[in-house]
Amino acid sequence: MSSGPLASQRGSPLDIVQSELGCNWKNIEDARQKTEITLKSLSTIIGGHPGADTSVGPDTSVVVHGSLARLECTQGSDLDWTLLVDGIADASVQQRFLDIKNSLSDTNFDELGLKKPGTEGTFGALAFSQPIMHFIGGEEDSNSNTTRRVLLLLEAVPIGERHGAFERVRNGILQRYLDEDRGLLREGHIAKNKRWVPLFLLNDFARYWRTMAVDFAYKQFDRGNKGYALRSIKLGTSRKLLFASGLLACFWCDPAISRNEKQTPNKQSLIDSLGKFLSRTPLERLALFFLVHMKTSESESLRTTATSLFGAYDAFLGLLNNQDKRLHLEQLKPADEENDPAFVDARKIRRTFRLAVQEMFLGEDSPLRQHSIEKGVF
């Protein structure tokens, strides 16, 4: 399995789609370049602490999430990180965590252009493989546990020298989802066709998306509407992108969608294919879909959809990277939103992105339409 988005970005589907459409998504490219520099700096920082020596063993990986993992770092992005433990949590692991935490705390976040992790405690913390892999559903699958598990698949990249724990846990999560999906790859009772789409995995992606939407309302109440305007724009763009890319990953298992004629009907093959697909960034996953299908009979509508989708997202990243506009939206009061030019513009970007995603999955000519209706909705 690839070690993360950086391994696949050069000559990526996104670059090719951009070229074929004759577009210039400068903000996406600027964010990608900023991310490269930031991740290298962070790798240097965590590699310079005492716990970085080999005495700690190969059972941990430092993993970043959020915009850094999506290669979308902008001014003011959060540094969402965890120390992932896939082994015995002895004293050396705790010491390594404290060393990393102290090293990052001593770092000038202003120089990196990053913010510290949020106060909820999901990030900037230890994360253990056992609950992440084994508590899927049930009372012990907390919001934090679900978040860590889903983000390890959809939005995560290891930094530093140790990637082994990250790769093992990620593969183990996929193994659980697909091994326990009893109907996967079985012949249907009526149509006699195999079900390629992993529904156990798809349902957890959908659950996480709905959890994000519900938590948005909770945070609005808990924080007295502080930061509401910017968070609402993010929910409808970067958060929606994450879910869309996860839904696509499940549909991509079907050779009719991926156009992968070599896809074999066994679960290990699907796990390998999913791992490869998920090693790309969310934007790259969507771009790969358009790249594969823009050569078909419905190519004109797909080209229009792709232009709108990536263009809107490029505008969204440009908004986030504008310090004045970002700060303005963070401080904007809900009562002032309707007549605020910056919020009105941001809402237009969000709406354009939403309509493009809807067209991608539910458009009359979309190859994803039937799967979206039958498995994504009902």
What does this structure look like?
The chain is built from 18 helices and six strands. It has helices at residues 13-21, 26-46, 66-69, 91-106, 109-112, 129-134, 143-154, 164-179, 199-222, 228-235, 238-252, 255-258, 267-278, 282-293, 299-320, 323-331, 341-362, 369-377; strands at 60-64, 77-78, 81-85, 114-115, 125-128, 157-159. The protein is 60% helix and 6% strand. The strands form two sheets. A four-stranded mixed beta sheet has the order 5-3-1-6. Strands 2-4 form a two-stranded parallel ribbon. It has one domain (5-377). α7 crosses α9, α10 packs parallel to α17 and α11 packs across α14 (282-293). Residues 1-9 and 50-56 have low confidence and may be disordered.
Low-confidence stretches are 1-9, 50-56
Structural class: mainly alpha
Largest sheet: 4 strands, mixed
Count of distinct structural domains: 1
Strand content: 5-15%
Short description:
60% of the residues lie in helices and 6% in strands. The protein contains 18 helices and six strands. It has helices spanning 13-21, 26-46, 66-69, 91-106, 109-112, 129-134, 143-154, 164-179, 199-222, 228-235, 238-252, 255-258, 267-278, 282-293, 299-320, 323-331, 341-362, 369-377; strands spanning 60-64, 77-78, 81-85, 114-115, 125-128, 157-159.
